[in-house]
Amino acid sequence: MPLPWQKSHTTSTGGRVTNVTTSNKSRRLRIFSSYAPDWALTIVLWAIFYLLDKINGYRRLFDITDTSLAHPHADPERVPVWLLAVLCGIVPAVIIIITAAIRRSFWDAQSALLGLILGLGLVATFTNIVKITVGRPRPDLFARCILPENLTENPLHGLTSWTVCTQPDDSVLQEGFRSFPSGHSSFAWSGMWYLILYLAAKMRINHRSGYTYKSWLLLAPLSCASLITISRTMDYRHHATDVIAGSLIGIAGAWYAYRQYYPPISSPQSYKPYSPRIPKDEEIPLHHHHRPQRSSMEGMLNTTGSHHHTSGSSGNTIGINGQPPLPVAQPVYGGYNGTTSSVPGRRENWTAVDIGDRTNYQSTTAGGYNGNSRVNEESDFGEAKETVQRPNERVE
């Protein structure tokens, strides 16, 4: 009779799984299919962001005597868009991939990258929607607008419109009315705050171990986001309230996206991603229909054939020397704690462990997980040892 951890596996319905590799590939495809809409949605979000950027949004009236709009136009910027994308998009993605490779967890990489891209897409799209709707002038508006020299005051009982501007490049003027909120700030804080949450969880920052190097490591992304935010006021592209609002939007978006795939960092298992949506449908019940071999003493106490018979309708069983045999419970091997059941064949007494869950194998097998016939570790992408069940899936 093959043991549960050996090559020939048994499903939860009592059937025999003859080709585990084929089943693993099928489940892998179903996992990829279940998360394909998520990746598609992030692509759609980025497409919406690109299209929104081309819209000629609202342009507020302004006061030509407002000195907060009279700052020079900085060209080039201290942090251009391409550098922002590298620092707050590509760098966190590379760090996530390297960390997941060290941990040998494909599922961790997939979850973290999807959360990062989701957060950046949500933040960028929402920020752009607010930008084109609010239409707040930038601090360098006058330099962009190129006001006429003879224009020294506002219209009587009113403010000045953008139509007085002599700027020939409408794209430059259009950007002059997209001050609130700061897109650089929201994008920077989204990428860097997501990285902070990811690294803090992986380093188990809240486990009260007191290692100071963890705080210094987290200071790097925190400083990066802060300096990018400050640079927007140094270039006179945004007011102080613009960068504050953008930073809050980025932090909120990063937290939301991170919590879609990971537990809070205060959790003891914060370093593990949530399990996939596709449950492990292949389970190995540690109870078999074949009776386990009994010891010689047990056979003597509960003999069959000529050693006992049933008397009439009384149902009394006569054992050796006319005495009733001792009751012997049929063990049902299994369970995470090694418990047994005295009622054989009842499905509710069965317990099962999932394929690839080597923690359960270590606790239920004498030889441990590292036997000669081990289950393929790659069948669940590190899911068995590197995931935590979602709250609505936990069984008390």
From TrEMBL:
Localization terms from the record: Membrane
GO CC term (a single one): membrane
Biased composition (Basic and acidic residues): 382-396
UniProt feature, compositional bias: Low complexity: 311-322
Alphabetical GO biological process terms: phospholipid dephosphorylation; phospholipid metabolic process
Polar residues bias: start-end ranges: 359-374
TM regions (residue ranges): 35-52, 81-101, 113-134
InterPro entries linked to this entry: PAP-like, PAP2/HPO, PAP2/HPO_sf
Keyword vocabulary terms for this entry: Membrane, Transmembrane, Transmembrane helix
GO MF: phosphatidate phosphatase activity
Pfam families: PAP2
Region ranges (Disordered): 288-322, 359-396
All copies of domain Phosphatidic acid phosphatase type 2/haloperoxidase, residue ranges: 113-258
Bilayer topology annotation: Multi-pass membrane protein
Superkingdom field: Eukaryota
Family according to the record: Belongs to the PA-phosphatase related phosphoesterase family.
Name under which the protein is recorded: Phosphatidic acid phosphatase type 2/haloperoxidase domain-containing protein
